[in-house]
Amino acid sequence: MEEVEIASIKHKTTVSVVFLSLRNIGIQAISTIGFFLLTILLGAGEVGLFAIVAESVAILGYFSDVGLASALIQKKQPITIPELRTTFLIQQVLVLIALAAVALIYPNISQSKGYGLAEMSILISLCYAFFVASLKTIPSVQLERKLDFKLLSTIDIIENTSFYFFAVLFALMGYGVYSYAFATVIRSTLGLILIYRFSPWPIGIGFSIEATRGLFKYGIPFQLNSLIAMTKDRLSSLLVAGIIGRESFGILSWAQKGPRIPLSFMDAIMRVTFPTFSRIQDEKELLKRSVEKSLYYISLFIFPSLAGIAMIAPDIINVIPRYTKWSPAIIPLYFFAFSFAIAAVTTPLTNAFNAIGKITITTKLMIMWTVLTWIFYPILSFKYGYIGTSIAAAIVGSSSFIVWYIADKLLSIQTLKTISQPLISSLFMVIILTSINFLHLSPLLNIILKIITGTTFYLTYSYLFSRKEISWFLEQIKCLLIKK
């Protein structure tokens, strides 16, 4: 690969990571405030209902393109119009089949479970969102191929803002759980209009056997991993919901919301690094350094964020009297924070495996996690309810250490060494923030003192022991601003 091309990829990657990170910070700020307001206005059962239906419809997404979109992104050569139209045709056929299956199956489920108009309205809105998302695939692929995440970021922010704005607005007007349905339709329609306005393509239907064969060669193995992931995550969630009920599932949804916030930074890097790693997959040393940098900066931001959220969550609940209904979610939140910390390190590694074509390794790992999930989740959920579910998540997450071993053998990446400084400083931060509880301050003062103390300690520690890495990051931002 030419040095000029490598430099261009590095610059585009840095630009994309910065913009996606800023985008995700904005989205998370909006969604956190929106979710916070909704969980004041709505009960655990209503939150749980939306989460259950959302999980159900999300399952359809795994059957919507059999990995063809990822194959287009991963493809080394430029993509052609026949490939785009073949992908579009296959995807729409699969989407229509999935929606037809829902139409046939849902009436029986509705009758047996006693579902009413509320469940039906949420299902219809989410099916509509699923169909619209399939129409957005090709424009999104084109933008990701160009590493042009600025536009994608802008559209995502607009979609997310509109969803929570209208969801809260309708909830304030007294529409209850229907607020989710109205907001979902508005968000999906707005996003579709925007992405076709700014990223059009010669839309059409076509079929090329040659294009299909080439895309399926990568797409089918990739989608097999996605289907296994669906079995591990989505289906297991529905199983848990059936075991513990709507109220408890709503508590689990709340418990996962806070720890998921920092993962948005990881999502930004993952979205950029998959096409980037694919482009540099033949440059072994460059790939190794890129993966290590991804691991380090993900850990640098996510570890302290998870620690901080876990430490201030009880105080946030006690600030507003009406919010104490979510107190049972605190213990599960701790287990999810631990599980997400491991996932934050593991996901970039499996992402790298996929990008360089080592799909079979990821497949075997996904099978292992799926088996563990279906063993521990039902057993512990039956025995200990929603707390048992969160414990199971931590147990399954702990098995991810095997990925670190594989990364060392395959890419010579020493994961624990790479993340050691962010990990140590975050653990010290937890100890310091825990000691503040013994001061017996008011919840609001506790939050303020913990944020100031935790931030000051972590920044000071990172500056003393990770100055080189932080200087490199700041230098990249400086170069980015100069080039702009």
Mean pLDDT score, rounded? Answer: 79
Could you give a short account of the major beta sheet? none
- What is the gyration radius calculated from CA atoms? 23 Å
Overall strand count: 0
The SSE string, one letter per element, is HHHHHHHHHHHHHHHHH
Question: Number of helical segments?
Answer: 17
Structural class: mainly alpha
Share of helical residues: over 70%
User: What does the overall shape look like?
Assistant: globular
- Tell me the strand percentage band: under 5%
Low-confidence stretches: none
Roughly how many Å apart are the termini?
A: 25 Å
The figure for the number of domains is 1
Would you give an account of this structure?
The chain has one domain. Helix content is 86%, strand content 0%. The chain contains 17 helices and no strands.
